[in-house]
Design brief:
Chain lengths: 206, 206
DNA sequence: GTATTGATCAAACGTTCGTTTAGCCCCAGG
DNA sequence: CCTGGGGCTAAACGAACGTTTGATCAATAC
């Protein structure tokens, strides 16, 4: 069954090209060439270009949602759950960088099919968020930390480094000032929990 | 001088279509029709489709940078500066919503001309950030709040509501749970400063 | 009155797009 | 042996793309 190879190579090439050039800028011919397959094989395996995109979206959202379920909606202190969630999610963003860029950079399209597809995933994520923040101290309710606010906020915060890096890498004011992933996770978790003026949130906290 | 009208109408239509459909999905003919001008007028005024995009980018980045300079890099307590910056920036994002969506949603393109254009703006923003966080207490240095981390982070946090709203609006689990802009600004500023577990950061603080 | 200039237009340029078709190759099942 | 069908291909489809051209029109300058 040689077909499985080709099918996978198409998806690998697609996620790279979609992330770097955008979905619309990426032509089927360039995609076929990078994947090393014939042009017609793409629609043979995936039916259409759009279906190929939704498959990429599903891979990312399924992985992201699973992490949220595992860590954020578990039992235990809110701060510990947030810390573990942020660490795993950022590691996942890094290992699936191009999947993530496609998933949250290709947001603007009016296409009701794509938007509906994403909304189905978002609905599940909102449930996790609600479950995770609902039994929190009254402060959360008081601050209006609704799921519809927290889900985009947490995602944006963790993704910010990857979202802007194509531009920031070309600035090069001070190369080498990019913190490594492990510490990046701690910083983001610290800010989520205590903000930038809060006590230094490295390591364990109360 | 009827031309100024047409030129402005083209830009108005472009920013709406680019934000809703994306730059690549928006054709010159659809753009011309929405603007109520002849197809050839777009390149007559702007030279090319890409030049029209850079003009939109400049409008957004110039406004955003000015706010950062005014509020963030001013004198005074860090928390007060952050609070005022967040408030003004979010108001600017809301009033220039489509400009912002184009500016930060159209990030993936490999096009060196566009990336270089954005990098020039990012360089200035990083200078403001450095200036704003450099004379902070040692905690900032300790937490590695480098400009290259803070600039994308703050921007992403404030933009998260607008970035994901096309999808979230279609979820409709609990319509009406979207907080209004004024309170949204306070919440974001509170999280930036004190996190979600910090003391409730509404109103004045020490 | 005539030349100049900038705004506007319809039409066409060549290219690239996503998709489809018709057929080849090769191997398992009868 | 042959017969199907899945993997695979070259070629073509019509449509849409961004851009350019040459002409027309109105108003200004000489």
């Amino acid at each position: 069954m040689k077909g499985a190879d080709a099918r996978q190579r198409i998806l690998d090439a697609a996620v790279v090209l979609f992330a770097r050039q955008g979905f619309d800028r990426t032509g089927m011919r360039a995609l076929a060439e990078k994947a090393g397959v014939n042009l017609a094989m793409i629609n043979y395996f995936y039916g259409s270009k759009k279906r190929l995109l939704t498959e990429i979206l599903d891979i990312f959202f399924a992985g992201y949602l699973e992490i949220a379920r595992d860590e954020l909606a578990a039992t235990g202190e809110l701060s510990a759950r947030v810390r573990r969630f942020v660490r795993r999610a950022i590691a996942f963003f890094a290992s699936h960088r191009d999947f993530m860029l496609v998933a949250i950079s290709e947001l603007h399209h009016d296409d009701p099919e794509i938007i509906g597809h994403k909304a189905a995933w978002a609905r599940q994520m909102l449930e996790v968020m609600e479950e995770s923040f609902a039994p929190s101290p009254a402060a959360a309710e008081e601050m209006h930390l609704s799921p519809k606010l927290m889900a985009p906020l947490l995602t944006s915060m963790m993704a910010s480094r990857f979202l802007f890096s194509p531009v920031l890498d070309r600035v090069d004011r001070d190369p080498g000032d990019m913190v490594e992933l492990e510490r990046y996770s701690e910083i983001i978790a610290g800010i989520v929990l205590h903000g930038i003026t809060g006590r230094v949130a490295r390591g364990v906290d109360a």
